Amino acid sequence: MNMRIEELHLQNFRGFRELKLKLPPDLAVFIGVNGSGKSSILDSIAVFLSEFVSLLQKTSKKKKLEFDISADDIARKRNRNHIN
Questions:
Q1: How far apart are CA 17 and CA 84, in angstroms?
Q2: Alpha-carbon gap, residue 38 to 32, rounded angstroms
Q3: Is residue 49 part of a domain?
Q4: Cα(38)–Cα(5) distance, rounded to whole angstroms?
Q5: What percentage of the chain carries pLDDT values higher than 90?
Q6: Residue 62: its pLDDT value, please?
Q7: Cα separation, 56 vs 63, whole angstroms
Q8: How many independent structural domains does the chain possess?
Q9: Domain of 19, in residue numbers
């Protein structure tokens, strides 16, 4: 089973008021200066995937999933070696 993210739509997530990204089918690379939102995009995908994994067994394989995730759903803890 192959899965990929076709489109990412963020609303009021960290520094983004609204962002819509259509991702290419093969590879996406995020390039930008510090503070431009690259990590926020990846963190939003991580939040989505954690919700997706918890619901994966409860849904059919062909069903489209959409999530509303607010800032209250996200906890971020910094460490010198990694970010949780």
A1: 23
A2: 7
A3: yes
A4: 16
A5: 43
A6: 59
A7: 10
A8: 1
A9: 7-71
Please give the structure tokens belonging to residue 46.
């991580």
**H/E stretch holding 47:** helix 38-55
Tens digit of pLDDT for each residue in 11-43? 998 889 999 999 998 999 999 999 999 999 999
**26 in a domain, yes or no?**
yes
Amino acid making up residue 75: A
pTM recorded for the entire structure: 0.62
Structure-token pair, residue 25: 């089918």
Nearest one of 65, 47, 50, 5 to 30, comparing CA atoms: 5
Instruction: Retrieve residue 76's tokens.
Output: 């971020």
Quote the pLDDT of residue 24. Answer: 93
